[in-house]
Amino acid sequence: MGSQGLATLDIPADTRDLATLAAGNGGYAVRRLTLTDFRCYRHQRLEAGEGPVVLTGPNGAGKTNLLEGLSFLVPGRGLRRAKLSDVIRREEGNSAFSGPWGVAATVKSPQGEVEIGTGFEAGRAGGRDKRIVRVDGETVKSQAVLAEHLSVLWLTPQMDRLFLEGPGSRRRFLDRLVFDSDPAHLGRVNAYEHAMRERMALLRANGDTAWVETLEDTMATRGVAVAAARLDATRRLGGQLKESTGAFPRASVEVAGTVEDWLKAGPALAAEDRLRAALAARRAADAAEGRAAIGPHRSDLKVLHLGNGRPAELCSTGEQKALLVALVLGTAKMRAYEQGTAPLLLLDEIAAHLDEIRREALFDEISRLGAQVWLTGTDAGLFAPLAGRARFFAVNEGTVTPQN
């Protein structure tokens, strides 16, 4: 499709209607979370209700581990992108596995209450490690099913360098935002990357040309679909971010890349033909360089601070943090406007890195959004404005204690 065919977002002029929009179905919420042999937790059950959740405690107490457990309730590798075997609990002084891990939750979704869970079983005799997924007690074949029951966005301290690192981190960030409203996107990305790796292996080995052509066809069709989904998401998100006001900056977002430029200039089929031809023409060069030089794996997410006119990478540290918060909140609002349901938000150690004005603005946005938000921090006092609006828990040495 050309850019003229991408969906548009009709944003209500009065953003005070946001909570009303989300109230029809309400936001997603994890009412109960249970961790078993996960990171520092042998067995921990937490009754969270439906409102915001605040987890406070010293560094290393296990706060982020709780958020990571929640992030495994959607498809993917979680907020730390960890291997399945890395998150299993280990006895102190013993690096050996102590058993499989599991994360289970009672979730409120637009379809009603559902029990979902996931876990890890180590492969036997050199076999592959296995991730288990269950919905209402029944084992399902694919973790992709989780996306039907829960939507999650997160922001962690490790993401603070998003605008300063290479484009790979920004593509993953963007793909997570796309996936939140388009669960099929992850499959398209994986199919494209698999075909790209197979093509490179064949080129290096002077493999069968017919099979190379087949892989290039897959890269063309899946790659253009990936680029189109990214363009669509940034177009819709950009409409939301430009309308944002208050303590967080207005911003513009776009995807920069060759395939995206082709899509802006013409239909998707023409872009597929151009990518297919470019891959064929560059076989020798790609084999010599050890990588494909053209494709959506080379694209980048560009963010502009509309308040000062600077690209995100040239903004101050504080401005970059505010832009990140704006992107996540903007995506959550977009989801609420489009589907009437706000995603679950996981905000790790965010309050300490915002000034008082932005911190209170964040809390107000959370309340207006109608989403369940899980926040962590070392200083409980920073979350005082949420008293009466959130449930508070103290976390210490892998133990969680309710505070209200």
Describe the protein.
- This protein has 404 residues and is an alpha/beta fold.
- It has two domains: 24-160 and 348-404, Rossmann fold, CATH 3.40.50; 164-314, Up-down Bundle (Glutathione S-transferase Yfyf (Class Pi), Chain A, domain 2), CATH 1.20.1050.
- The protein is 37% helix and 21% strand.
- It has ten helices and 15 strands.
- The strands form three sheets. The protein has a six-stranded antiparallel sheet, with helices on one face.
- Helix 5 crosses helix 9 (317-339).
- It is globular and about 65 Å long.
- The chain starts with 17 loop residues before the first helix and ends with a strand.
- The relative contact order is 0.18.
- Residues 1-16 have low confidence and may be disordered.
From the structure above, extract its key features.
404 residues, alpha/beta, Rossmann fold, Glutathione S-transferase Yfyf (Class Pi), Chain A, domain 2, 2 domains, 6-stranded mixed sheet, 10 helices, 15 strands, 37% helix, disordered N terminus
* Percent range of helical residues: 25-40%
Count of separate structural domains? 2
Shape summary: globular
CATH architecture of the largest domain: 3-Layer(aba) Sandwich
Give the rounded overall mean pLDDT. 89
CATH superfamily of the largest domain: P-loop containing nucleotide triphosphate hydrolases
Main sheet: which strands, in order across? 2-1-4-5-6-7
- Give the structural class: alpha/beta
CATH class of the largest domain: Alpha Beta
DSSP strand tally: 15
Classify the fold: give the CATH topology of the largest domain. Rossmann fold
Note the gap between the termini: 53 Å
Largest sheet: 6 strands, antiparallel
